[in-house]
Amino acid sequence: MVGWSELGDLGALESRAELFDLLRDTYPGAPRARLINWRGQLWAFRGAMTPGDLVALPLKTTGEVAIGRVTGGYAYRPEPPPTARHVRPVEWLVTDAPRASIRDDLLHTLGAGMTVCEVRRHRGAHRLAALAATGADPG
C-alpha cells in the first residue's frame, strides 16, 4: 500500500501524462519536481510491479524489515483507512528481518527517500530473496 489518499482510483489511467495531470490538479501548490517524483513512484506501483516481484518494507515501529512477493495487480480501496487506498496483494515471506542482518549498502538503499523504487544496485533483488529464505544478506 502507498499513501496519496487524496487521489482516487489510478486503474483507469492510460498514461504517465494523465497521472501527472491528476497529481497537478490534486496538489496545485506542489513543485513540479515533486510531482514528477510522485508520478514515477505511483506509475511503478500501479503498473510496473508485476506478480512475483519482491518488495521490502522497512517497519518504522519495530526497526525490522518485512519482505514479500507481489501476488496480484493494483487495486483501489475507497474505504478507511485513507493511508491504505492504493494497494497490491503481497504474500509476506518474512515480517521481522532485523536491520542488523542487512548489510549497510542494501540497508541505505532501502532507506532511500522514495516510498516506491526498484532496488537495482548491489544485486538487491537477489539479496532480498536470500534474506527472506535464509535470514542472512549474502552481500
Write the layout of secondary structure elements.
Elements lengths: L15 H11 L5 H17 L5 E5 L5 E7 L4 E2 L9 E2 L2 E9 L5 H7 L13 H11 L5
Antiparallel strand pairs: 1-2, 2-5, 3-4
Helix pairs in contact: 1-2
Summarize the structure.
By secondary structure, the chain is of the alpha+beta class. 33% of the residues lie in helices and 18% in strands.
Question: Strand tally, please?
Answer: 5
Shape label: globular
Q: Supply the number of structural domains.
A: 2
Instruction: Kindly state the percentage of residues in helix.
Output: 25-40%
Uncertain parts: none
Head-to-tail CA distance between termini: 28 Å
What structural category characterises the helix and strand content? alpha+beta
Could you give a short account of the major beta sheet?
Answer: 3 strands, antiparallel
SSE pattern, N- to C-terminal = HHEEEEEHH
3D structure, described in words:
This protein has 139 residues and is α+β, with helices and mostly antiparallel strands. The protein folds into two domains: 16-48, no CATH class; 54-134, no CATH class. The protein contains four helices and five strands. Strands 1-2-5 form a three-stranded antiparallel β-sheet, with helices on one face. A two-stranded antiparallel ribbon has the order 3-4. A hairpin with a 5-residue loop joins strand 1 (54-58) and strand 2 (64-70). The longest helix is centred in the first third of the chain and has 17 residues, at 32-48. It is globular, with a radius of gyration of 16 Å. The model has no long low-confidence stretch (mean pLDDT 87).
